[in-house]
């Protein structure tokens, strides 16, 4: 998907450009400003209701400016609103962005990192032109309508159906855990168009207008107290055939693209899931005096070590073949890292982790503690990633599984969410 | 020692009562945040739980520590949010060391009858280096000033037992709720099932129950009792979170079979069971060692403080994980275990303090 540019700016030039844009608009973030501004460690905001809507509005205004300046989609094709540069350029700009107190743009994560890449890779020319600029300008918020109550890890068992009706399709079923569906205009849907016994072979991908009649979104409250994921009921929803992505019954490879970008996203150092956790840990240890404790110093050392390793792995994965499943490797590293950072913060804060004393930069770790379990579940759980590595990289035999009624083949993780 | 049968009967009676009177969801807990007096008096009248370790001469049932820990375990498993832990686990042992004092005996009798909620407010317990409130002896009687950072069940109390600094000596002061100059302020906490409040004291009139060595003994009893009670709660939390998860993986199907059939899931759960058993052993070891020489007693208690908190947190975290998406919802109660487990864990052991306690005491034992 990357158009390599030969004549474009160097990495230093693009960084300077980003600095100039940002410095004119927003304050620098920690450590220069440690103790001021937002102290969230978790990237996903915790606001609800009107406060969340205000946050989204601010994010959209911000994103429009960024897009206009050519700094939103660094490695995207120029014809769809991208800058046409390399992933290295993108990473460099993201690193600069992290140095400033920019508005929280987590609501665009699904569009930018999950649905957008699927449209770019598998969409028609019309679909790309219709959606990609809007997604990157922040006009279109996206959600991923994959998981169902009965189909989580085993995504290939999904039952939401799309039936042919005239020129289009009629969709019925229920999705669940759909992040940002309550804000989204566009959903990437997986629906069954073939025989359920065909599992992954009978699935088609669609782009669903979330405002269409018959789409009913009901927010679910998460353990953090935020309401980011939703139940989505689809009741006779009409979807034009032009909204289909890829072939009929050919949705599975598209799902895999999506799941792969989702996994890599979670391992991307700039993914916005956490705000500079390691730098903040060091600052926390210093401000509390805990950095004098040799055990804490060892934890701080390991925190930095982990961060470098996940970053280097992300860098190496850019050049690695798909068979390396580096997305799964990255995801497992990053979920373990997050738990490690929480444990290190626990060591430093002690009982202050449990009670909000109002000190800047402390209860933010309690919120990370509450948010962390999500990352081991979402986007294919730890166990599913381990199955992928064990089976697809190491070539170990698949788990024996009971035959699926009506078929003699076994389910493979390749065909599951493999998430599944 | 109570018999295995008595212990089982006590456990079952406690379980039935506490589960029936404890909210199940986060929302219900939030709604029931205020002190639930009916449960408190019912617990005393029907089961005599507050007096589980109070001698019969003061109206209690006079059972042993092991029996008390069974009750705390059940409170943890049910995520009971009332003031039981601070009152029975902390205040009662402290008051028992002062049982020669008429006022202490009256307080014990009232606690046992379920008519009084006596909550300790020890600054040191929540923030090891926090300065204790200061007690001054003025013409109008003793007064106390200072802040106790986070008092468990602080707002539900009829009064607070406050370890204080009286001119360089420790004093144990009693400050009844409603005293002018004493105010609580509820705090935001990660545990949604139990309230914490800051206690602010500004020249509040206080009754001094003990000074000097007697006050220190009472305060030590408070700290030991709290540690054992929290550790026992952790065992209950861990056991319940594991049970909940085992039940779930037996019914949740993916890939055409229950997820509990995957070895990846089975092995994790077996591991968690081993972790739970290690916590049970740590608690039993600490309880059995309370009468031992101080180095052994203190090291054993520190073992329980480290193990039980860590086990509960680990098991509750994996419990969320093995529930998948549903485990990350507010409605599902599994996160309530995770929240309580983490809270108990950081109260039991922070900053590596318990590891240092073990190392110091064991070195003394070996040198011994
Ligand atoms: C915060 C959050 C946001 C999400 N956002 C989205 C979204 O935007 N769109 C979307 O479609 N979905 C989303 N999801 C859903 C997510 O993809 C699923 O929760 C996940 O795939 C697990 O499915 P499940 O919840 O049904 O759990 P299950 O599949 O029921 O898994 C339960 C447990 O069993 C384990 N398990 C399952 N199969 C195996 C096996 N073969 N071997 C060993 N262990 C196994 C799992 O690891 C897990 O621990 C989100 C989830 C979360 C928590």
UniProtKB/TrEMBL annotation, chain A:
Belongs to the acyl-CoA dehydrogenase family. This is Acyl-CoA dehydrogenase. GO terms for molecular function: flavin adenine dinucleotide binding; oxidoreductase activity, acting on the CH-CH group of donors. Keywords: FAD, Flavoprotein, Oxidoreductase. Its cofactor is FAD. One of its GO terms (cellular component) is plasma membrane. The lineage of its organism: Bacteria, Bacillati, Actinomycetota, Actinomycetes, Streptosporangiales. Residues 406-420 have a biased composition (Low complexity). It comes from Actinomadura craniellae. PANTHER family: ACYL-COA DEHYDROGENASE, ACYL-COA DEHYDROGENASE FADE34. InterPro entries: Acyl-CoA_Oxase/DH_mid-dom, Acyl-CoA_Oxase/DH_mid-dom_sf, AcylCo_DH-like_C, AcylCo_DH/oxidase_C, AcylCoA_DH/ox_N, AcylCoA_DH/ox_N_sf, AcylCoA_DH/oxidase_NM_dom_sf, Mycobact_Acyl-CoA_DH. Residues 143-237 form the Acyl-CoA oxidase/dehydrogenase middle domain. Residues 395-420 are annotated as: Disordered.
From TrEMBL, chain B:
It comes from the Bacteria. Keywords: FAD, Flavoprotein, Oxidoreductase. Its cofactor is FAD. One of its GO terms (molecular function) is flavin adenine dinucleotide binding. InterPro entries: Acyl-CoA_Oxase/DH_mid-dom_sf (IPR046373), AcylCo_DH-like_C (IPR036250), AcylCo_DH/oxidase_C (IPR009075), AcylCoA_DH/ox_N (IPR013786), AcylCoA_DH/ox_N_sf (IPR037069), AcylCoA_DH/oxidase_NM_dom_sf (IPR009100). The keyword Flavoprotein applies. Residues 228-347 form the Acyl-CoA dehydrogenase/oxidase C-terminal domain. Residues 5-114 form the Acyl-CoA dehydrogenase/oxidase N-terminal domain. Residues 14-36 are annotated as: Disordered. Residues 26-36 have a biased composition (Basic and acidic residues). The keyword Oxidoreductase applies. Belongs to the acyl-CoA dehydrogenase family. This is Acyl-CoA dehydrogenase. It comes from Actinomadura craniellae.
